[in-house]
């Protein structure tokens, strides 16, 4: 029995100075639809969103939490961890943050050749969750991860499934005009057994509904 579904959504932001940040092209649309679809599993939905487009910032009847950085997202996810939970990690957290963020707006240097910024690694949320669920002895905690790839989708998704201790991973192709925000897409769902299922092509609403129905069936057959 699953009593809670946590859905993370959208990009995180890492500040360079008070007016500039680095982020990525995730819109939050998939996470938003997944959080709505997940209501067939439980009414207890926690929606944790990064810098998503306005239309995807709140999910009706869900507990909605807004975060900015990857560290904020990690803390928000850890605060919600309990047994009998499904975690859907649809967010696209920034993997790196500026090593020395500035307190004041950086000034353009006249005659400067270019700008070199140094970055340091952010925590991997799924790896942290995997460690915590073992430490806390959860027996009924399930994790669906995502793998947005521009190449070698199956290979990269399977590596992430294993290395992040996931139960399923949903892989999709992304690129400049593909996968982010746009209306139709497709997903390959990979299992720890090596099995896989194709979903779509279809709208993100359709993909989210189908994915959640498959996961619900998988959970009920355990
Ligand atoms: N993820 C995470 N913590 C991070 C980065 C990613 O938990 N710091 C999660 C994402 O939410 C997603 C999965 O890991 O469910 C795969 O994310 P992706 O960005 O595809 O993979 P990365 O681990 O960042 O690897 P790479 O950027 O090398 O593809």
How would you characterize this protein structure?
The protein is α/β, with parallel strands linked by helices and 222 residues long. The protein has one domain (4-99, 121-220): Rossmann fold, CATH 3.40.50.10300. It is 27% helix and 29% strand. It has five helices and twelve strands. It has helices spanning 29-37, 70-80, 125-135, 153-163, 204-220, and strands spanning 4-9, 14-17, 20-22, 45-49, 63-66, 85-89, 96-98, 119-121, 141-149, 168-173, 184-191, 196-203. Helix 4 (153-163) links the parallel strand 9 and strand 10 (168-173). The radius of gyration is 18 Å and the shape is globular. The N and C termini lie close together (10 Å). 37% of the residues are buried. Bound molecules: cytidine-5'-triphosphate. Cytidine-5'-triphosphate binds at residues 70, 89, 91-93, 95, 122, 124-126, 145-148, 160, 164.
Present the secondary structure layout:
Blueprint: E1 4-9, E2 14-17, E3 20-22, H1 29-37, E4 45-49, E5 63-66, H2 70-80, E6 85-89, E7 96-98, E8 119-121, H3 125-135, E9 141-149, H4 153-163, E10 168-173, E11 184-191, E12 196-203, H5 204-220
Parallel strand pairs: 1-4, 1-6, 4-5, 6-9, 9-10
Antiparallel strand pairs: 2-3, 7-8, 10-11, 11-12
Cytidine-5'-triphosphate (CTP) binds next to helix 3 and strand 9.
């Amino acid at each position: 029995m699953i009593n809670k579904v946590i859905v993370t959504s959208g990009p995180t932001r890492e500040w360079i100075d008070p007016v500039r940040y680095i982020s990525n092209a995730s819109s939050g649309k998939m996470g938003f639809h997944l959080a709505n679809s997940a209501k067939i599993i439980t009414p207890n939905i926690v929606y944790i969103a990064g810098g998503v487009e306005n239309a995807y910032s709140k999910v009706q009847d869900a507990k909605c939490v807004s975060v900015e950085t990857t560290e904020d997202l990690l803390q928000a996810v850890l605060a919600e961890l309990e047994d009998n939970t499904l975690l859907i990690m649809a967010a696209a957290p920034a993997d790196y943050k500026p090593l020395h963020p500035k307190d004041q707006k950086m000034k353009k240097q006249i005659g400067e050749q270019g700008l070199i910024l140094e970055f340091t690694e952010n925590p991997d949320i799924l790896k942290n969750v995997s460690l915590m669920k073992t430490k806390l002895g959860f027996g009924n905690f399930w994790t669906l991860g995502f793998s947005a790839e521009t190449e070698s989708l199956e290979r990269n998704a399977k590596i992430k499934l294993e290395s992040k201790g996931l139960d399923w991973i949903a892989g999709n192709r992304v690129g400049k005009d593909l996968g982010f925000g746009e209306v139709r897409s497709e997903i390959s769902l990979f299992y720890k057994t090596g099995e896989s299922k194709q979903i779509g092509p279809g709208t993100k609403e359709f993909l989210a509904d189908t994915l959640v129905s498959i996961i619900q069936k998988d959970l009920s057959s355990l």
